[in-house]
Amino acid sequence: MKLEKQSNYNKSYSNSRRVAYFVGALALFIGAPALASILVQNFLQGTVVVADPPITKLQGADADYDGDADDTTGYLQVNLGTTITNDDSGLGTPGATDTLLSHEEITFTCFKGDRTYYTDVIQLDNTTVSEDWNVTLTVEPDLAGDPAVEDTFTAGDADIWLFTSSLDSTGGAISETPNPGAYGTLTQWQNAVAPDGAIQMEVVAGTMSVAQAVTGPFVIPSTQQRQIGLVVDCGSNMVNGETGTFRMTVSATPL
User: Fold this and answer.
1) For residues 8-33, b (16+ Cβ closer than 10 Å) or e, as one string?
2) Beta carbons of 85 and 142 less than 8 angstroms apart
3) How far apart are alpha carbons 203 and 159 in whole angstroms?
4) Looking at residues 80-88, what average pLDDT do you find?
5) For 107, how many CA atoms within 13 A lie in the half-sphere containing its CB?
6) pLDDT at residue 81 above 70?
7) Which end of the chain lies in a sparser environment, N or C, as judged by fewer CB atoms within 10 Å?
């Protein structure tokens, strides 16, 4: 009987100890946050590497129609040397200094009562030797906060279409005329009304607006180019010397 009692006593004592240890551990676990805070760190290194842009713009042949190699005079002017600020200095610190980004400018003439074709305005050039890129053109405000479209028109009506070729123009300019009335039959230009067809601006009673803001995405394979053309219908009721401006972003994503 004593041995049995002794065994039960030891078992009870052992269980009591286990319970005591469990309760004690729980108390420590719950109490730990009150004693100290925990800091866990992980580390990352970022390195910026500078390289040439994959998609660049080249002056089209129509900007040098007179052969004088001067792209700042004439009915079509293409200025590839300008820049635009990213306008981050107004964001406070950090960002006290603006960064300058490429900002190409095109100026073209609208002849009252006529349709004008500028077939080879700019070439979009894939400068990479092994990467194909998806490219999208979008009419939108620029980084300096200038609106997508603005004008000084006081009267008149006009239509402006911007076409992108569907064929490589590296070996020579696209020969087909980018006729807006030929949707569905064009073979050398993006052909659908949207989203792959022409970007379109309209002027109605002297107010300029965007009728079709996006074209693409379309692929420019490595080392190839795509040609941009303009078609401008200028109403006979337009006013000489008045101007309209639209701003466009060329976005590219590697495939």
Assistant:
1) eeeeeeeeeeeeeeeeeeeeeeeeee
2) no
3) 6
4) 86
5) 11
6) yes
7) N
